[in-house]
Amino acid sequence: MQPSNPLTLGDLSWRVARTCNAGTCIRVAADGDTVFLGDSKSPEGPVLVYSRSEWTTFVEGVRGGDFDDL
Q1: Which end of the chain, C or N, has fewer beta carbons within 10 A?
Q2: 26 domain residue, yes or no
Q3: What is the pLDDT of residue 6?
Q4: Domain region containing 42
């Protein structure tokens, strides 16, 4: 995981969950083998950068209940 400056990320197609409430959501974009996460309230704020493999592992963990105690 690496923090990145969103001003250097160009024109990504950001998405938020369909159930996003008043823009207080995590936004996600992908470009090739890289997945970007940012805060929808702070589009100019920091962005986290993950490989597609790291993202897939995380999503599988969420779906599998690995974080249900949080």
Answers
A1: C
A2: yes
A3: 45
A4: 2-63
* Residue 68, domain member (yes or no): no
Asked, for residue 12, whether it belongs to a domain, the answer is yes
Q: Tell whether 9 is covered by a domain.
A: yes
If one counts the domains in the chain, the total is 1
Q: Chunked in runs of 10, what are the mean pLDDT values of the chain (70 residues)?
A: 52 87 86 92 87 97 97
* Integer angstrom CA distances of residue 69 from 14, 24, 66: 28, 22, 8
> Could you tell me which residues are beta bridge partners of residue 39?
26
